[in-house]
Amino acid sequence: xxxxxxxxxxxxxxxxxxxxxxxxxxxxxxxxxxxxxxxxxxxxxxxxxxxxxxxxxxxxxxxxxxxxxxxxxxxxxxxxxxxxxxxxxxxxxxxxxxxxxxxxxxxxxxxxxxxxxxxxxxxxxxxxxxxxxxxxxxxxxxxxxxxxxxxxxxxxxxxxxxxxxxxxxxxxxxxxxxxxxxxxxxxxxxxxxxxxxxxxxxxxxxxxxxxxxxxxxxxxxxxxxxxxxxxxxxxxxxxxxxxxxxxxxxxxxxxxxxxxxxxxxxxxxxxxxxxxxxxxxxxxxxxxxxxxxxxxxxxxxxxxxxxxxxxxxxxxxxxxxxxxxxxxxxxxxxxxxxxxxxxxxxxxxxxxxxxxxxxxxxxxxxxxxxxxxxxxxxxxxxxxxxxxxxxxxxxxxxxxxxxxxxxxxxxxxxxxxxxxxxxxxxxxxxxxxxxxxxxxxxxxxxxxxxxxxxxxxxxxxxxxxxxxxxxxxxxxxxxx
Length: 480
Description:
Pfam families: Anticodon_2, tRNA-synt_1c. By secondary structure, the protein is mainly alpha-helical. Helices cover 43% and strands 9% of the residues. Among the domains are: 243-321, Glutamyl-trna Synthetase, Domain 2 (Glutamyl-tRNA Synthetase, domain 2), CATH 1.10.1160.10; 326-370, no CATH class; 381-478, Arc Repressor Mutant, subunit A. It contains 19 helices and 11 strands. The longest helix is centred in the N-terminal third of the chain and has 16 residues, at 18-33.
């Protein structure tokens, strides 16, 4: 049995789209599960679409996501690289061989003639004109240096059929496929030709790509068959949708992997979530590390139906990864976002990290969660009302003076001691803990929602500032 070999073959045309990363991830996971090789190849023959810096984005994204390749460009490694623009002589030789085999032909038609060709629906379509040139005419034009391309010779009738491991049997009428260009006039191959030659030469056993290639695969198979090469197995992936009507697309400005990282999503959560966009594990477990994904991935779990990119679910998953961190790990990752807060540098960062960790899903939310600490001022006394806690501004007028006294007497101003003191106060007054804690938290922060409870917020603020704020809050109420 052949060793499984998969590949990721992106074009360096910009940032790493979520769909591209999913293709790379599935290729990697399948190869790892089967004990095979995952290969990187850059399809950069279209110079018009090439974007400076895009190659580095590909390298950096794969490395960042933990996707390791056995061949191809590697930081610090001795691999490959497989870069199509450096393999022009190989493609030319195979294109000429395909002409000899009858699977392709020289086309000397100029741009004006090509532009004038329309089918019955008014769509541009080549008419096989140059297929009928004699060998003598072809030799003369080549000798004269007439510009040419090499086109694929698609049968004018019949059907191209193959089995896809996700979609099952696929059939396409050859009359619906144009004689596409395989080798351009500048000598560079098109994607349609280079990917077939490279997949064969690199021993790719399983081609994993988007479902948009389902209908064009028969023309690739014609080339495999003409050369006498074994066809690879095909695994086409359903699209990732923005909503029920629109595909997720970098052309529409939808988020890339790096955009999500910059927003503060946990990297492992992004990779985990992308794996679930079109694939379902046998178990109901959704939170999985990359190693766990490698162990659990299977082609049987790939769905035919499109997946909708559900950012709330990604937020939830990111939050689950954050909850599993230590306070120190969270602080290390959240530091760049903490630095954007008005509260940064004025309070104990590790204590801030502790109260934020279980209440944060995306780290870019951190500044908005703690900026209020530095924005204390007069606030609406209606904030003291809480039906569940049975508190209101009258309860606050009763509780806050005693809380002020109780907290001022504490020698150790830490969460546990503060919480115990406030619970003792509630017991002494015959109140529920929540009544006291709610009123004190509102007095300390002037907010209905905060990342920590009363005792946690008091510890963050420190004794002096906590007592000062409760005193001011009493003033806002007009005293007892």
